[in-house]
């Protein structure tokens, strides 16, 4: 059996088309164009690429993006002041700070300074707390993007064992909360987990978000599982690979995401969706 590929690129394109249509509708009805402020500190090449993708997506669907490229040695206080200004700016619905930040800046302090209603990444403790209480508002982009992929393929959640490998604040932890809300039995594995293969073998839904090539061996995959690979590592030869031995895994899984072209495009599409949520385009029950 060869797994069916989950085409994140196509599903993200579909979501973006829907968002674009929604913006046109709302603007015809007299709403203002949604605005996203994007802050990049320093000149990390990978971060630069991610920011460019996000800004181009904004342009594509009709979100106005405000770009702040700041020097590596900016004072923490200056960054906090910029965020205060953006919190009060009525043209700005969402504020995004590209991580990682330079070492002299406390990321948690910066992220907590963003108005939770403008926190389109969903990293603010208020938004994570809402998710933990099953009343999410702005949801972390990658986990929610993965839920949209899983819904798209008609994944069952209730009665399924979901195993999340990696417990970061950005992906693993909120992913486990999303899967709990959907009714799965959830196991979270991390660097202190003994016998990772034991847990992976039980996964009906496997989400790996570590960033270690070959971490998950294909023979651990439960036949018929749904496999989501969030890991992105650039190898010395320039190719991009995930956490999971793809060639072998796709012979065992029922569904699998490719790397690249699986989860990545969904993260950006959900960021756009969150910007519309922050702009008041959706009622809260959505």
UniProtKB/TrEMBL annotation:
Pathway: One-carbon metabolism; tetrahydrofolate interconversion. Residues 6-121 form the Tetrahydrofolate dehydrogenase/cyclohydrolase catalytic domain. It comes from the Bacteria. It catalyses: (6R)-5,10-methylene-5,6,7,8-tetrahydrofolate + NADP(+) = (6R)-5,10-methenyltetrahydrofolate + NADPH; (6R)-5,10-methenyltetrahydrofolate + H2O = (6R)-10-formyltetrahydrofolate + H(+). CDD domains: NAD_bind_m-THF_DH_Cyclohyd. InterPro entries: Aminoacid_DH-like_N_sf (IPR046346), NAD(P)-bd_dom_sf (IPR036291), THF_DH/CycHdrlase (IPR000672), THF_DH/CycHdrlase_cat_dom (IPR020630), THF_DH/CycHdrlase_CS (IPR020867), THF_DH/CycHdrlase_NAD-bd_dom (IPR020631). Homodimer. One of its GO terms (biological process) is purine nucleotide biosynthetic process. The gene is folD. GO terms for cellular component: cytosol. GO terms for molecular function: methenyltetrahydrofolate cyclohydrolase activity; methylenetetrahydrofolate dehydrogenase (NADP+) activity. This is Bifunctional protein FolD. NADP(+) binds at residues 166-168, 232. Residues 140-279 form the Tetrahydrofolate dehydrogenase/cyclohydrolase NAD(P)-binding domain. Its EC number is 1.5.1.5, 3.5.4.9. Gene3D superfamilies: Leucine Dehydrogenase, chain A, domain 1, NAD(P)-binding Rossmann-like Domain. Belongs to the tetrahydrofolate dehydrogenase/cyclohydrolase family. It comes from Aquicella siphonis. Coiled coil: none annotated. Catalyzes the oxidation of 5,10-methylenetetrahydrofolate to 5,10-methenyltetrahydrofolate and then the hydrolysis of 5,10-methenyltetrahydrofolate to 10-formyltetrahydrofolate. Pfam families: THF_DHG_CYH (PF00763), THF_DHG_CYH_C (PF02882). Keywords: Amino-acid biosynthesis, Histidine biosynthesis, Hydrolase, Methionine biosynthesis, Multifunctional enzyme, NADP, One-carbon metabolism, Oxidoreductase, Purine biosynthesis. The keyword Chloroplast does not apply. SUPFAM superfamilies: Aminoacid dehydrogenase-like, N-terminal domain (SSF53223), NAD(P)-binding Rossmann-fold domains (SSF51735).
